[in-house]
Amino acid sequence: MATALDRLESEPVLTTLQALRERIGARFPERGLYAVSGDLVELAGRVATSEAQNRDRLRVVRLASRALILVVVGLTLAAFAFALRSVGEGPEHEVEWLSLLESAVNDIVFAAIAIWFLFTVPERLRRSNTLALLHELRSLAHIIDMHQLNKDPERLRSTFTPTSASPAMGLSHEELEHYLDYCSELLSLVGKTAALCAEESRDAVVLDTVSTIETLTTGMSRKIWQKISVLNEVRRSAT
């Protein structure tokens, strides 16, 4: 029997995301990062409910595909029966057994292809829906990374000389640390939301995409923590 420790549940992820959004809003209500956190909350909600929403539609598609498979099998058997009846009724010299065998092989091949196509329609539909959500998560991870991209702790050094092209940061040492930390947490939750997509799937393509997103967000978070380390060094040198 499955327990709470056997799988990643959507409710704790959504609760953590909502709490993080409130924390970001309390410190940076006017920053774009707050809007991005809202997008992630909305997307995580769609991920959490996607399986339930698609279940009825996939059931209908599965029943329709199975019915069409029976039709294909019936038509194939009917074609075989007609061919055998022709063999039995006609003179031997009027029927080319080699042609009949070739036609039978072709019918079997085409029927098998049709059956496999129809049998995999529900899973391919589920894969398409899941990959669309994962694509949005990947894009959101890059958006979060863009928000921290120009937050360079070196610019807080007293010896830093800005140029006319230097972007305005408008954050203190403490605010920048919180900002970078929030970016890292958002990226981690992007990875957790992606992992929710794999809880109900054993599709190799989906699992590989989830793994790619987790690797991507881990790499982005590592860069952020390098900035936080530099920030702490700048703060110590300033004191």
Explain what the structure shows.
The chain is mostly helical. It has one domain. Helices cover 80% and strands 0% of the residues. The protein has helices spanning 10-27, 32-89, 97-149, 173-199, 204-238. Helix 1 (10-27) packs antiparallel against helix 4 and helix 3 runs antiparallel to helix 4 (173-199). The mean pLDDT is 83.
Largest sheet: none
Mean pLDDT across all residues, rounded?
83
Taking pLDDT < 50 over at least 5 consecutive residues as the criterion, the unreliable ranges are none
Number of distinct helices: 5
Roughly what fraction of the amino acids lie in strands? under 5%
Radius of gyration: 29 Å
How many structural domains?
A: 1
What distance lies between the first and last C-alpha atoms, to the nearest angstrom? 57 Å
Q: What is the oligomer described by this structure?
A: single chain
Helix content: over 70%
Structural class: mainly alpha
Shape: elongated
Number of strands: 0
SSE series: HHHHH
Attribute tags:
membrane, transmembrane, mainly alpha, elongated, transmembrane helix, 80% helix, 239 residues
Concise structural overview:
Keywords: Membrane, Transmembrane, Transmembrane helix. This protein is an all-alpha fold.
Secondary structure elements and their pairing?
Layout: H1 10-27, H2 32-89, H3 97-149, H4 173-199, H5 204-238
